[in-house]
Amino acid sequence: MLRTALKPRWLGLFAVLVLVVLAFTRLGLWQLSVAQNEARRTAAADAAQRPAVPIADAVAPHAPFPAGGAGRRVLATGTYAADGQFLVAPRRLDGVQGYWVVAPLRVQATGATLAVVRGFTRDPAGVPDPPRGVVTLTGALAPGESPAEQPGQAVGASLPVRGALDLAEVVNQWPGDLYNAFAFAVSERSGGPAGPETAADGLTRVPPPPIGETGLSWRNAAYALQWWIFAAFAAYMWFRMVRDDHERHPQREETDV
Question: So what's the pLDDT on residue 214?
Fold first, then answer.
């Protein structure tokens, strides 16, 4: 059958088949990417619309980060420790390079400390202190980051600078129990949840990053599978036609190449 496949007409059709398979494969990969992005958008929208819950209902001190906890809105009432603040760099927000401002919030309900990304700044020398007194934070949970190379101390920086929000490192710097999670501050209110909102004092709030592993949008995943089935069917049809030609004209094997 190999000699039959090497006939000019089947070779020409094979070249067309290669182009079709490549095109259908790329279309399938594109639909798979759309499926993943759609799932992330849906998960992010669901997380943002869910009502904030007390932090005790979402995660416990020193407990593993909860499955599906990324982006979950939580409420935590406590007091900030200004002397525990630090910066994380390099970070970008809206195309601008700068620093995350991280502060420890001692949660009243548990006595444990929650790392809070209060905002973003371009000026490492003019970082404001966190609000004084009791504050109720509304924040979006995130797991701790992987270790990163420590950047050099920024010129004029008023706070230590770290390369990542690595909770395994932070636990050695802040006394007491620590949550195995940090929170992006959405809002801060003096006193309880109904208290007046506290300004970010020149900081820009950092939106939570896109949610990672969230599965697939099954509709688009089905479209991807459909394109790959089309590619496999095209390859099968070429093979079937070559085989049929070989079975109809076996005696021409020696002369048609």
Answer: 47
